[in-house]
Structures are given as structure tokens and as C-alpha cells.
TrEMBL record:
It holds the Pfam family RVT_1. SUPFAM superfamilies: DNA/RNA polymerases (SSF56672). Coiled coil: none annotated. CDD domains: RT_nLTR_like. InterPro entries: DNA/RNA_pol_sf, Retrotransposon-Effector_Assoc, RT_dom. This is Reverse transcriptase domain-containing protein. Transmembrane segments: none annotated. Residues 1-219 form the Reverse transcriptase domain. The lineage of its organism: Eukaryota, Viridiplantae, Streptophyta, Embryophyta, Tracheophyta.
Length: 219
């Protein structure tokens, strides 16, 4: 940033000590094997047995199909969603409720939230550390747990979109006859949406994104 004015313009980083990372890594090793059964198949990042390249290939085919529908009555569109400060905006209450919704034991959730909420920050100004303060939301990007916990936050958007498709209010893209209808693909905190190119469908997507934003803190 050529002329930084706000704290975020200085690209602050979050650091974790070695002991914390050991604890966090132990929790990750227990959590990772369960993810493929819990997280939507539309998500391809950080899940054993899935490759981001798989979603990339599917996205390429969908976009190619959308281009072939240009200027037809079945025109569709692709929308790339890039969340601003995705990890930093995670709402802790939502994360805790999401873990509970998936059936994790209270003790396990308490361990996870203890890691998430133990964060303390301090700003270094003119070579001097200022008073320590505690955040009220967000995940540290240097924390081994953060990418995996964010999957549960992103999965809420996937659930909203899938529900709308099943109810018939949102029309995804089928690249050929008999192919499954694809409405979205997730790459960690990046999302590709595919839907019918109409004002009505755009309003449906807008409503879903507003619901997701208000619940999770994402923008």
C-alpha cells in the first residue's frame, strides 16, 4: 500500500508459539480424517482424498458450457466470490454452533474454542509494543487449525446453495443431459457460483449471500 492510513494497510501478521502449534496440530490430526464425511463434496481444499485440481477441471467444463449457451434462451452465468478478510471475519459464535450442529462432543468443541479464543494482539508502533488487546472474532492464518475450521464456515454457504437448488428456487448448470446440476464450487475461501442468467436468479443468489454474511460475519 503506497500510502497506508489504517492498521490493515500495514499487513499485520499473527504469530503462534511452538507449544500452541503442537497442541493445535494434535487437534488437526484428529479432525482431518473426518472431514471427507462432514464437508460438502463441492469443497476441494484441505480435505484428504480431494484435489483442488478436480474442481478446477469441473469449473473449466462449466464455463465452457456457459459460453456455448451464450445468446440462447438457456443462458447461464458464472460468478466468482472473493470474501474480504475471510479468516479475520469468522464469527466465533457461529463457528461454535456449526461444530455443535455437526455433532462434535462438548469437550472437543471446548478445546477448539479455547484455541480460537486464546488470541492476544499487540501493535508495535515506533519500535514500542502497545497495550495487549483481545479480538472478538477471526482465525489466525498461521494456526494449523484455521484452514480446517474455516471449512465449516464455508460449508454453511454450500448448504444454503444446495438447499435452494433442491427446492427449485436456484437453477445451476448441467453440462450435458443426465449430468448433475452444479451451482457452486469451493476452493477454501474462494467460491465459484453457476446459475441461470436472469434477474430473478441473481436476486435469489443475493439473498443467500446476505443470509450467509449476516450469520457468519463474512463480507
Amino acid at each position: 500500500v503506497p500510502h497506508p492510513k489504517e492498521l490493515k494497510d500495514f499487513r499485520p501478521i499473527s504469530l503462534c508459539n511452538v507449544i500452541y502449534k503442537l497442541v493445535s496440530k494434535c487437534l488437526v490430526n484428529r479432525l482431518r480424517p473426518c472431514l471427507s464425511e462432514l464437508i460438502s463434496e463441492n469443497q476441494s481444499a484441505f480435505i484428504p482424498g480431494r484435489l483442488i485440481s478436480d474442481n478446477s477441471i469441473i469449473a473449466f467444463e462449466c464455463i465452457h458450457h456457459i459460453q456455448s449457451l451464450k445468446n440462447t434462451s438457456r443462458a447461464a452465468c458464472a460468478y466468482k466470490l472473493d470474501l474480504s478478510k475471510a479468516y479475520d471475519r469468522v464469527d466465533w459464535d457461529f463457528l461454535e454452533k456449526a461444530l455443535s450442529r455437526w455433532g462434535f462432543l462438548e469437550q472437543w468443541i471446548a478445546w477448539i474454542m479455547s484455541c480460537v479464543k486464546s488470541v492476544r494482539y499487540s501493535v508495535k508502533l515506533n519500535g514500542k509494543l502497545l497495550e495487549v488487546f483481545s479480538p472478538s472474532r477471526g482465525l489466525r492464518q498461521g494456526d494449523p487449525l484455521s484452514p480446517f475450521l474455516f471449512l465449516f464456515v464455508a460449508d454453511a454457504l454450500s448448504a444454503l446453495l444446495s438447499k435452494s437448488v433442491n427446492e427449485g428456487s436456484l437453477n445451476g448448470v448441467s453440462i450435458c443431459r443426465g449430468a448433475p446440476e452444479i451451482s457452486h464450487l469451493l476452493f477454501a475461501d474462494d467460491t465459484l457460483l453457476f446459475f441461470e442468467a436472469s434477474g430473478q436468479q441473481a436476486n435469489v443468489v443475493k439473498g443467500l449471500l446476505n443470509t450467509y454474511s449476516s450469520a457468519t460475519g463474512q463480507l
